[in-house]
Structure formats: structure tokens, C-alpha cells
Design brief:
The protein has helices spanning 28-38, 48-65, 69-78, 80-83, 87-99, 103-116, 121-133, 137-146, 162-176, 180-193, 198-213, 218-232, 236-249, 254-266, 270-283, 288-302, 310-322, 327-338; strands at residues 156-157, 160-161. It has 18 helices and two strands. It folds into three domains: 1-117, Tetratricopeptide repeat domain (Serine Threonine Protein Phosphatase 5, Tetratricopeptide repeat, Alpha Horseshoe); 135-215, Serine Threonine Protein Phosphatase 5, Tetratricopeptide repeat, CATH 1.25.40; 251-339, Serine Threonine Protein Phosphatase 5, Tetratricopeptide repeat.
């Protein structure tokens, strides 16, 4: 996954801001500095241009963290001509371009950083993730593998052991390329290095079994990876599209239905949730979790106290009685009693 190393490492200081081209609309961050200058509140040693460079760069970072990617890019673009030589600035801009799925531009940006700082761990990792999103899986894997020799590979960043992070991503790429045995070995090594590596644990214990039994294909894993990344970036529509593509590719993959259904519930799209899970029931008729979740969507759609809910509630109670050890069923019964 992409953000296994957490928020970006801000690398270099800020340069001076050149005057923007005529006709460019200044973002709010620049006008803030003009207001401060007009009030005489800027330090004597700081110009309006220097202030704007610092404020707009920081605003771009903050907007990125808020998943406001278009706005973030506008702030960063305003200072591009001046700060384009700063690895810190380029990293921030590359992350935003990646979030906007402008992958070719993002790749070029990470390449620029690596020309300046050939062993920049953050830039190298982001370059690998970008190559993967471009479908260049072999090159992405080669990038991660080369980074084992970099100084940052043995460090720990915010309690994440970077060697385990690298190994987990190599394992993921091998799985996506169809190398199930090799990917599994890498994931086992990643977990051995760092038992708290959530990516490696999830892949090893939840995804690999589905690849082994054929309910998930390497193509489906690609869509699953894209879906989780979209969720991380608060891009609900993009996540839904990836999940639907996943289920077309791997129609027997139960977790895909359940995760997508949960997203639809959060958006109050209860009828669509029902439709999705009825489709799942047709494809996987013996799965109890799918039935429980479909009943849940029905009750949410009609309201638990309505007359229309009575058949669904009766079905829920009957199914829960038949499956007393099912955690989801017991949870739904408890919620029903609370109401």
C-alpha cells in the first residue's frame, strides 16, 4: 500500500518566491501575506514574496492532508517556479499529483527528487507506488528491491520498520504479478521482521488464502489495492468503482461484497446495498455473512420498527438461531434489541 510510511518527510527549506506571471490568480495564501504587509505585521527581514512562499507551501501540505487535492495543487502551483529546486516542495507536489491520478507527472516529479538526492527513501518509495499504478509492476518491484541497499532501509520511521515495509510491498507486487509462492515468502519475512506490519499481515492472512483458493485473482487484487488507496484518500466514488471492478473480476470474493456494502451503508444507500448483496447471494448462495448483511440493509432501508421490517427481522432471528457462533448475526441481534 502507498502510505505505509505515514505523512511525507519534509526535507528541505524554502527558497525565495519569484513574482507570479501577469494574470495569474493568487490563491488565498498569497493574499494573506499581502494583508499582513499592509498592516505592517510582517517582520522587517521578511518580504511578501518570502512569506507567500512559506505560507502557500504549508497550505498545500495542509490541504493534501485534508484530501482537498485540487486546492492543494493550486497552492503549490503558485510557488512552483521558485520552489521547483526544493526536494521538499517536489515531494509535496508529487504526492498531490499522485492523489489526483496524474501518475506520469507524479513519476517525473519523484524522478527529479532522486536526481537531487539519489537515496531519498520517501521519493523512492513513492516512485515505486507510482510505477505500480501505471501497471509497470516489474519496474515497481525492482525499485523497492533496490532500496534495501539504501541507508534508510534499516531505519525506523514513526514505529514502522522500513525493511519490513519494503519486503511487504515486494510481496504485494509479486502477488499481483501472479507469483503466489514468492509473494507469500516475502510477506512471511515482512511479518517476521515486524509483527505489527498491518499491510503484510492483512495480505498474508486474509488475501493470500483467497488467492490460493481461487476466489480472488491477481487482477482482483489490483482492484482491491486501488480501492483501499481510494478509501485512504477519501475518494468514495473511486473506491466504489474499484470494488465493482474487483467483483466483476472475482465474483466469488466475499470480502469485496461486505466491504463495498459497508461503504454503501455509510452513504445511506440501503437499497443499492440490498441489490449488491442479493447479487452476492446468487453467486455465493451458502455464505451466511452475505445473508446477514443483506438483511441488515433491508432493515435499515425500511426502518426497524416498521411493519415492512417484520419479515426481515424474522429471517434475521431464524438465521442467527441456526448460526449462533456468527459474530455478525449476534451483533445485529444486539443492535435490534437496543432499538
Amino acid at each position: 500500500m502507498r502510505r505505509g510510511l505515514g505523512p511525507a518527510l519534509w526535507l528541505a527549506g524554502l527558497a525565495l518566491l519569484a513574482a507570479p506571471a501577469a494574470g495569474d490568480a493568487a490563491p488565498l495564501c498569497a493574499s494573506d501575506c499581502e494583508d499582513l504587509a499592509g498592516k505592517g505585521e510582517l517582520r522587517e527581514s521578511v518580504t511578501v514574496q518570502e512569506c507567500a512562499a512559506s505560507v502557500c507551501h504549508q497550505e498545500g501540505r495542509n490541504l493534501y492532508r485534508q484530501n482537498k487535492h485540487e486546492e492543494a495543487l493550486a497552492s503549490l502551483d503558485y510557488v512552483q517556479e521558485t520552489l521547483k529546486g526544493s526536494p521538499s516542495y517536489l515531494l509535496d507536489r508529487g504526492l498531490v499529483l499522485y492523489a489526483l491520478e496524474r501518475f506520469e507527472e507524479a513519476l517525473a516529479t519523484f524522478d527529479e527528487i532522486l536526481e537531487m538526492r539519489p537515496t531519498s527513501f520517501r521519493a523512492g518509495a513513492q516512485r515505486a507506488h507510482t510505477l505500480a499504478r501505471l501497471g509497470k509492476l516489474e519496474l515497481a518491484q525492482a525499485q523497492f528491491e533496490a532500496m534495501f541497499e539504501w541507508p534508510g532501509a534499516q531505519r525506523e520511521f514513526r514505529e514502522i520498520k522500513t525493511s519490513s515495509y519494503l519486503r511487504g510491498n515486494v510481496g504485494l507486487l509479486k502477488l499481483r504479478r501472479g507469483d503466489l509462492a514468492g509473494g507469500k515468502r516475502d510477506l512471511e519475512e515482512a511479518v517476521e521482521i515486524d509483527g505489527n506490519n498491518s499491510l503484510a499481515n492483512t495480505l498474508l492472512y486474509r488475501v493470500v488464502p483467497s488467492l490460493e483458493d481461487g476466489t480472488l485473482s491477481p487482477g482482483g487484487l489490483t482492484q482491491l489495492t486501488a480501492a483501499f488507496e481510494a478509501i485512504e484518500l477519501a475518494q468514495a466514488k473511486r473506491a466504489e468503482e474499484s470494488f465493482r471492478a474487483l467483483l466483476e473480476d472475482s465474483p466469488q470474493y466475499v470480502p469485496g461484497y461486505l466491504i463495498l456494502a459497508q461503504g454503501l451503508i455509510k452513504q445511506n444507500e440501503f437499497a443499492e446495498c440490498e441489490n449488491l448483496l442479493r447479487l452476492a447471494e446468487q453467486r455465493i448462495p451458502d455464505n451466511v455473512d452475505v445473508r446477514f448483511q443483506r438483511i441488515r440493509c433491508t432493515i435499515l432501508r425500511v426502518g426497524p420498527s416498521s411493519t415492512a421490517a417484520k419479515p426481515a427481522i424474522a429471517e434475521l432471528k431464524s438465521l442467527a438461531a441456526e448460526n449462533p457462533d456468527n459474530a455478525l448475526g449476534q451483533k445485529l441481534l444486539f443492535a435490534l434489541d437496543e432499538n
